[in-house]
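User: Please predict structures.

Assistant: First:
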Amino acid sequence: MEQSQKTKIDCYVVFTKSTYKHWVMTFFNKQISHCYVMMKSTGGHFWHIINPTVSHLSVQTEFVEDYPHPRQYAGVNAVIVPVRAYVSNKPRWGLCFFTCVEVVKSVLGIKDFWIMTPWQLYKYLMKGNSNGNGNG
């Protein structure tokens, strides 16, 4: 039987207003309707930015010296939540849509199926669930 292992991940979840125009967006919170993750590389010299968009998954690397704080990358209107997650190697089961929330949940090891919108994820993290138990 394989031992359960956990990996610590320190990152920032960035919540913004989506620029996507679709009728389904009327059901989303107007200011928090998109999310993505920023995390520093090993050694802390680079930002890894994982930004799931409507058309593709954008993965960028930027110098930390160019953006010393996530606010300088994300902009003044973004809501930024620091997260320390302890991601388990246990499988993340379930059927889901490929959305920004599902990608961020996957990075953080959150397995809660009922978190489906950026606003729900924001509320979940603000309740202190960002301790990274990996269970969701």
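Second:
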Amino acid sequence: MRNQSNHQSKLIQKWSRKCLAIFFSLFVISLSCQAQSSDQWLRFEGKNGPGKGKHIVLISGDDEYRSEEGLPMMAKILAEHHGFNTTVLFAIDPATSTINPSYQHNIPGMEQLQSADLVIMLIRFRELPDEQMRYFDQYLESGKPIIGLRTSTHAFNYGKNPNSPYAKYSWQSKATGWERGFGAKVLGETWVAHHGHHGQEGTRALVDGVNQENDHPILRGVKDIWGPSDVYTVKNLPEEAMYFYMANPQKV
């Protein structure tokens, strides 16, 4: 009887531990789901910090740099350590309702831009439906800030619907006033080519641009910047940058 009692006690302890583990897992899942305000985009509520009360929308959608992984990490840092409310949008394949960076025609939640104070984007060759794109256009016209990362110089590519009112955003646009599209018009350059040997060379950055003696607060203490990836070719190099290059080729 004693052996049977001990066996039953061990079984009860074993199942209790399993039940506790299941309960804990469900609790963790429920906490993580609190950040998710929709099945198609991700939202983090800001904690204390200088960004309290401000909203940043991060738009992912490229098939090279894993923005669908990197931007959620950035959004969580901005929320937890700096206080911003953040929303991350993704390229969603409507056939599967899953994130698919290679699907270029759908980024749900663009209406979130109506309450955005800042947009951070890393997208490539998107051609969004007009009902989504209009929110981006309205945000841009509002004059609020945009940070465009890497392939955002060629964020849009209108091939299926060249008559769209937003076809001017296309990276090869020839529309009057929007020559070479969103990249050239807003960010300063569209995609031209890779500089040097793509995938084989790194990049040295000039601290504070070409004016290296400026004591900018953000760059105080920064002496050198080196990146493991190559850079894009610039078609229309600013005059002061060209002058600096010609005078100091060894520093570039």
